[in-house]
Amino acid sequence: MESINRLLEIMKTLRDPEHGCPWDKEQGFSSIAPYTIEEAYEVADAIERNDMGDLCAELGDLLFQVVYHAQIAEEKGSFNFEDIVDGIIIKLLQRHPHVFGDKQIDNAKAQSRAWERFKVQEKEIKFNGKYISVIDGVILNMPSLSRAQKIQSRAATVGFDWKDTQSVLEKVNEEITELRRELSDRPDKTRVMEELGDLLFTCVNLARHMDIDAEAALRSANYKFETRFRYIEDMLSEQNKRFEDVSLEELDKLWEDAKIQKTH
């Protein structure tokens, strides 16, 4: 595509040693990585808000991050943008034999499991047949909810999983009971944190069994809380009041009002 070539040329010009942008010339993989992560989150935010204009713009920003890394790599003689595209084409063809070959996969869940198995097989080939753990390579600095879901998905590919959603719900109740036990009498903060972590991990498992992205679910809950809290702030401001001026009962009433307002 002509537009892609134009974008690649712009990036190359920005990094030109003599005539490029001083800031862009100084950047490397590590300094750009935080921006790449930020742009991915901004894409997710636009999707959450169902803002197609913002989504288009944010996807462009994210694409620019790929182009940026590709340009740095090309300067180092490591790879270029075309190598990135060729790599993902090969990967997609290999991991979708039910589309581009004669394999049969019945549903999306089966495909997800097959995808994870392909990744493990690719790693075994890369390391000359050496055994690779199914949870090897799950990135350490992923958001913890996302990483928990990824670890669980990998484990599920070898059958290490709850049989159904009801079983996970029962485990959630079990973890709540254990947390209550730790909170009684003289709570030990380390033990409480451990039990709370177990509860959160199990809640992620519950989300996975319901085909819900745990990170997206919490992001939605954050947004819902923010909008309701801001409603309360606005109502108090209209009455020239602060939080400390009203009772908990009044705040609870405003919270319920906010829930009604945000559903209309």
Low-confidence stretches: none
- CATH top-level class of the largest domain: Mainly Alpha
Please provide the ordered H/E string of secondary-structure elements. Answer: HHHHHHHHHHHH
Sum up the overall morphology in one term: globular
By DSSP (H or I, 4+ residues per run), the number of helices equals 12
Q: How large is the share of residues in beta strands?
A: under 5%
Name given to the CATH homologous superfamily of the largest domain: MazG-like
Largest sheet: none
Let me know the number of strands. Answer: 0
CATH architecture classification name of the largest domain:
Orthogonal Bundle
Helix content: over 70%
Task: Describe the structure concisely.
By secondary structure, the chain is mainly alpha-helical.
Structure description:
The chain is built from twelve helices and no strands. The chain has helices spanning 2-14, 22-26, 29-48, 52-76, 81-95, 97-100, 108-126, 144-156, 165-183, 189-209, 214-238, 248-261. α1 (2-14) crosses α4 and α11 packs across α12. The mean pLDDT is 90.
